[in-house]
Amino acid sequence: MKVTVVGAGAVGASCAEYIALKNFAAEVVLIDIKEGFAEGKAMDLMQTASLNGFDTKITGVTNDYSATAGSDVAVITSGIPRKPGMTREELISTNAGIVKSVASSLIQASPNVIIIVVSNPMDTMTYLVHQATDLPKNRIIGMGGALDSARFKYRLAEALESPISDVDGMVIGGHSDTGMIPLTRLATRNSVPVSEFVSADRLEEVKQETKVGGATLTKLLGTSAWYAPGAAVSAMVQAIANDSNKMFPCSCLLEGEYGLSDISIGVPALIGANGIEQIVEIELSEEEKAALNASADAVRKTNGLI
Ligand SMILES: NC(=O)C1=CN([C@@H]2O[C@H](COP(=O)(O)OP(=O)(O)OC[C@H]3O[C@@H](n4cnc5c(N)ncnc54)[C@H](O)[C@@H]3O)[C@@H](O)[C@H]2O)C=CC1
Ligand SMILES: O=C([O-])CC(=O)C(=O)O
C-alpha cells in the first residue's frame, strides 16, 4: 500500500510515524508546502527505521504531487491548528481553501484514492471534499470519532480506576467542543455497563471531559494535540490496508441515515478496502437523537461558511 500524508507538521508526522511503526504500508509520502520540511521529517523518521524495526519507505517532497501518484490512501492534515481559547470552527477561512486545492491535486495524481480528512473544522472540511470532488462517497472519510472515542475510553478508565483495555465506548456527532456525543449509555467494562461502577454524576463529568478533550490539550500544549490524532488516523489506514471491516465512528456523508442528509458527521461505520464499507445505524435514545440533531444543526451552520 502507498499512503500520502499531506502536511508534515505535528499530526502528519505523527501519523506517518505510527503507520511506519505498524509496518503494514510499503510506502508513505509526506508532502508539505514549506520548502524542505517534509524532506527533513521523512529523513528523520527513516533514521528511526533500523532502531524501530520497520521497512516502510518514507519520502518527503515539497508540493510535488507527481510523487504521490498511485496512492491508495491520502490523509489531509494541511492547514493551521487552533491556539488556546479558539474553537476549531474559527480555522475555517484559512483551512477551507487549503483543503479544497489539496484534494483536487491528490485526485489528479491518484484518481482512485481514499481520502481521510483531518484538518479542522473536520466535519465541514470532509463535506467540502465531497462537494468539490467527484470521488464516490465511500472514499471520503473524516477522522474525529476514532480520536474522540480513544479520549472517552481514557476518561472512562480514569473514572472506573480500571485499565483502559477493560473499557469500551464510542463518541458520535460533530468533532467539536459542544457537538460530540459520548455514548455513556452504551459504554462498558468487559461487557458490564459502566453505570454499574460509577455514579451518573461522575459519568456526566466523563462526558464533559471527553467533549473538551482537544481544547484541554490545546491549553496545555499551546497548539493542538498530535500523538493520539496520529494514532487514530493510522488505525483507520491500517483497517483499509487489511480490509478489516473494523468499526470506527467517523465523519460520513449521510443520505437519510439517522434521519440526516447532505451532511458529513460522525456515525459508526465499517472501514475496509473500499473505505466506508457500511454506515452502521444503531438505535439511539430520544436524548441521544436530540443531541445528534443539535450537533448536525451546528455542523450545517459551519458548512454555510464555505
Ligand atoms: N480531526 C482531528 O481529530 C484533528 C484535527 N487536527 C487538525 O489538523 C490540522 C493540522 O494540525 P497540526 O499538524 O498540529 O498543524 P501543523 O501546523 O503542525 O502542521 C500543518 C502543516 O500543514 C502544512 N501546510 C499548510 N498549507 C499546506 C498546503 N497547501 N499543502 C501542504 N501542506 C500545507 C504546513 O506547512 C504545516 O507543516 C489542523 O487543522 C488541526 O486543527 C489536529 C488534531 C486532531
Ligand atoms: O483540538 C483541536 O483543535 C485538534 C483536534 O481536533 C483534536 O485534538 O481533537
UniProtKB/TrEMBL annotation:
Chain ranges of the Lactate/malate dehydrogenase C-terminal domain: 147-301
Organism domain of life: Bacteria
Entries under CDD domains matching the protein: LDH-like_MDH
Gene3D superfamilies: Lactate dehydrogenase/glycoside hydrolase, family 4, C-terminal (3.90.110.10), NAD(P)-binding Rossmann-like Domain (3.40.50.720)
Annotated catalytic residues: 175
Biological processes annotated in GO: lactate metabolic process; tricarboxylic acid cycle
Binding site for substrate: 82, 88, 120, 151
All copies of domain Lactate/malate dehydrogenase N-terminal, residue ranges: 1-142
UniProt cross-references to Pfam families, sorted A to Z: Ldh_1_C, Ldh_1_N
Assigned keywords, A-Z: NAD, Oxidoreductase, Tricarboxylic acid cycle
Binding sites annotated in the UniProt record for NAD(+): 7-12, 32, 95, 118-120
GO molecular function: L-lactate dehydrogenase (NAD+) activity
Matching SUPFAM superfamilies: LDH C-terminal domain-like (SSF56327), NAD(P)-binding Rossmann-fold domains (SSF51735)
UniProt xrefs under NCBIfam families: MalateDH_bact, PRK06223.1
Family recorded in the similarity comment: Belongs to the LDH/MDH superfamily.
Cited PANTHER family: L-2-HYDROXYCARBOXYLATE DEHYDROGENASE (NAD(P)(+)), L-LACTATE DEHYDROGENASE
Name recorded for this polypeptide: Malate dehydrogenase
Organism from which the protein derives: Roseivirga misakiensis
Species classification: Bacteria, Pseudomonadati, Bacteroidota, Cytophagia, Cytophagales
